[in-house]
Amino acid sequence: MAAAVQDPNRAAVAFGRQAVPQLFEQLQQRDAPCSLRVLTSLCDLVHEPERLYQIVTGGFIAQLQDLLKEEDPSVRTKTCELLHLLTSHSIGRLALLSSSLLPPLSDLLDDSSSSCRRNVHLVLNGLAQMPAGAQALLMLVPKLMLKLRQMEEEQEEEEALLLSTLSSCSRLDPLPALASDGVPVLGHTLSHCSPSICREATEVLMALSIPEDGKRQVCEEQVLPVLMGLLQNGDLQVQTNAAGVIMNTVIITTGPSSCLVLLR
Amino acid sequence: MALPSYSLRDPNGMYTFSSRPRPVEIRSKYREPAPEQTQRQYGNIMYDRRVVRGNTFAQHPIPRTDQSDPAKQQAFKRRAIARRQARVHLRTKSPEALQGRQHVDVQTELYLEELSNVIEATDTECQTDEFLDKPATPLFIPAKSGVDAGTQIEEGELFDFDLEVQPVLEVLVGKTIEQSLLEVMEEEELACLRTQQRIFQELRNNELAEVQRLQEQERRRREEKVLRVAQQKEALKKERETAEKIAAQAFSQQYLAGLLPSVFTSLKNHGYFYDPVEKDIEVNFLPWLMAEVNDQLKKRFVARELLDTIIYEVSQKRLEEFNRLETRQDSSDP
């Protein structure tokens, strides 16, 4: 009866237990507009935990792998949105980690469609909040640093999400990010950015400045002047994070000396 | 797509058509240029223009030529007249009468009929009688048929919507509010968890910084200590070396003190210190002298030798001569 006034953007949903399996069967047909409608319906259903559990335990996640390689960008975007909704629950996150979806997802980081890239970043961000997820994403850190370097001015949201993922990963293990020249890139990001990006970038810096190598790099790469400037920033979080970086840096002997030089 | 219709031709030639009942689509007054396939706007049949509503007797039939324009009507009339005239012209007529003859129209049916323009008409009149007063017609009460039945709605039998709906409403509202409360509580819980995480992170950062600071301090102190110890060791070593050097120097001095005179004496004994004149005399003059003396003596010796050989030869000669003489003498004196 509700289906009589059907939204043309969504596929029909069966009742009860059959909803999810039937939708995934329809996905097997690989018809692009049909797949888009099915994915929209799935995205609506997944908000309910029971359906999410059904998806995870029914082993349907492997099917999504083919969809990630579809030619139509809207299909890829919707699939990534579905994955993002999956990461809102712990079983979804665990299922994502244990499936082999991470390599195709990391390939999609270079996708041409910006909404698809944004959704991929959302998925990675969601995964990185969990320690096991951050561990799995540590291998992706060099690629993420490369993307950060290539990031242009307009992609603020993507940049913020990327930096948030990096901060979660670096809190677990800062060495990969340090190895890929994290500190110079972040210093460069700090000098021209909006508040949200500043916040995230300073958080990453704080995580990176914990090992000794990072502290030394912060002193050497002239990041300290920028940080001093950020202490006057209006946003509280930015100030806090900048202060945190300086706190970490002055532990080594060159830290206080460089700071004093700057203060003069 | 969702409601398929099937029509097929039987082998016998029968045509069958079956279709699922489907809701009627609305059709607007003005057709849209390209109706899309996927959009099916199902309309209310009560408001469909194609369904005739109400009394059909009062409606006038749809006129054949629905021409509202008077000019068009006149044109149509003119065309009709022209058509009729053309038809009349086209109709083949009987040929003209020959000379002296006359064509007459004659009826050829079995029973002749008088054709005239005058229509016989008769007028008839009729008139009713005067109306008589008549009493009012009695009420028509038809004969009773069927069983009498009575009904009375008692108090509380009527369906009171407000009463009935209350439990349903309570359940609905209660469930909705419960759901929303759960969601709000979930969000609050999440926010609490995030706050806890943040607090933990802050504490961790602080403690980490403290630990690192202490580590650095420890490292510095240790390095300092190691440096100092090394310095001290250096100093000690240098001191020891110096002492050893001094001792060695003193010992060697003392050792060598007696060395020099003994060296000198031994050298002198070995003849390394010499009087050059004496040496010169010894080395140059005396050998020369000896050589010269030797030469002289050699010459004398040679001379003596020569003399010896001369003497020997002479004596040999003499001997030979004496021998010859002797033999001559021997031979001569037998």
From TrEMBL, chain A:
<dbReference type="Pfam" id="PF25757">
    <property type="entry name" value="TPR_DNAAF5"/>
</dbReference>
<dbReference type="InterPro" id="IPR057978">
    <property type="entry name" value="TPR_DAAF5"/>
</dbReference>
<feature type="domain" description="Dynein axonemal assembly factor 5 TPR repeats">
    <location>
        <begin position="96"/>
        <end position="246"/>
    </location>
</feature>
<protein>
    <recommendedName>
        <fullName>Dynein axonemal assembly factor 5 TPR repeats domain-containing protein</fullName>
    </recommendedName>
</protein>
<dbReference type="InterPro" id="IPR000225">
    <property type="entry name" value="Armadillo"/>
</dbReference>
<dbReference type="InterPro" id="IPR042856">
    <property type="entry name" value="RSP14"/>
</dbReference>
<dbReference type="InterPro" id="IPR011989">
    <property type="entry name" value="ARM-like"/>
</dbReference>
<dbReference type="InterPro" id="IPR016024">
    <property type="entry name" value="ARM-type_fold"/>
</dbReference>
From TrEMBL, chain B:
<keyword id="KW-0597">Phosphoprotein</keyword>
<dbReference type="Pfam" id="PF06098">
    <property type="entry name" value="Radial_spoke_3"/>
</dbReference>
<comment type="similarity">
    <text>Belongs to the flagellar radial spoke RSP3 family.</text>
</comment>
<keyword id="KW-0963">Cytoplasm</keyword>
<keyword id="KW-0969">Cilium</keyword>
<feature type="coiled-coil region">
    <location>
        <begin position="204"/>
        <end position="253"/>
    </location>
</feature>
<keyword id="KW-0206">Cytoskeleton</keyword>
<keyword id="KW-0966">Cell projection</keyword>
<keyword id="KW-0282">Flagellum</keyword>
<dbReference type="InterPro" id="IPR009290">
    <property type="entry name" value="Radial_spoke_3"/>
</dbReference>
<keyword id="KW-0175">Coiled coil</keyword>
<protein>
    <recommendedName>
        <fullName>Radial spoke protein 3</fullName>
    </recommendedName>
</protein>
